[in-house]
Write a structure and sequence with these properties.
This protein has 194 residues and is an alpha/beta fold. It has 4 helices and 6 strands. It has a 6-stranded mixed β-sheet with strand order 1-2-3-6-5-4, with helices on both faces. The two termini are 22 Å apart.
Length: 194
């Protein structure tokens, strides 16, 4: 941060597979430093679901394939290796609760995206998250699925449609960090989690 010009209010994390699980974990541990996260075809193992620990909202966009049997988004059992993982919906519930979405009284709504309909791409989420308590409602918790597997690009005809959806989600999100610590200091502090 001392060497490069970094807009600390726009630090985002994304990752694929185990990197997606890592993005989810970073959203729990460093939500005071991150503006938004987007795990792709990856969630944490069952028993490790976490909520963001700081009193700052943590927007999340989960992307998953409906034909993924390695880290399925809509069930907890990896049928290829017998690992139990969190479903995308369990993750959405935890983050929705943290972000002050009405997770108990409201069903998911369809969230429009630039990729709608391509390879059965569709997005759902909570559309009335009110973290600040000021009646400004935002989409801060959502997931998008397509008819893909774990190991194929989430795209169509060589175009990675997921990138556009992620960027559209990220560019609306900012977070002024509470901490003045450097990224290295923060990572040293949380190194026991990695």
């Amino acid at each position: 941060e001392a060497t490069y010009c970094i807009d600390r209010s726009r630090v985002y994390v994304t990752g694929i597979s185990n990197g997606g699980a890592m993005a989810q974990r970073l959203g729990c541990e460093l939500n005071d430093r991150l503006a938004a996260i987007s795990p792709i075809v990856g969630t944490l193992p069952l028993g490790h679901n976490c909520s963001p620990k700081h009193s700052k909202k943590m927007p999340i966009l989960n992307i998953w394939g409906t034909e993924d049997h390695i880290q399925p988004g809509d069930s907890i059992l990896d049928t290829t290796g017998g690992t139990y993982r969190l479903s995308v919906y369990q993750v959405m519930y935890k983050y929705g609760e943290h972000n002050k979405c009405d997770v108990n009284n409201k069903k998911y709504v369809t969230i429009p995206s630039v990729a709608d309909g391509v390879q059965e791409w569709k997005c759902v989420g909570y559309d009335e998250c009110d973290f600040e308590g000021d009646d400004d409602k935002f989409v801060d918790v959502m997931s998008c699925s397509w008819n893909g597997t774990h190991n194929e690009d989430y795209g169509f005809a060589g175009m990675n449609i997921g990138i556009d959806v992620i960027w559209n989600f990220f560019k609306e999100k900012t977070n002024i960090p509470i901490s003045t610590k450097s990224v290295k200091d923060n990572l040293d502090e949380y190194s026991s989690f990695f």
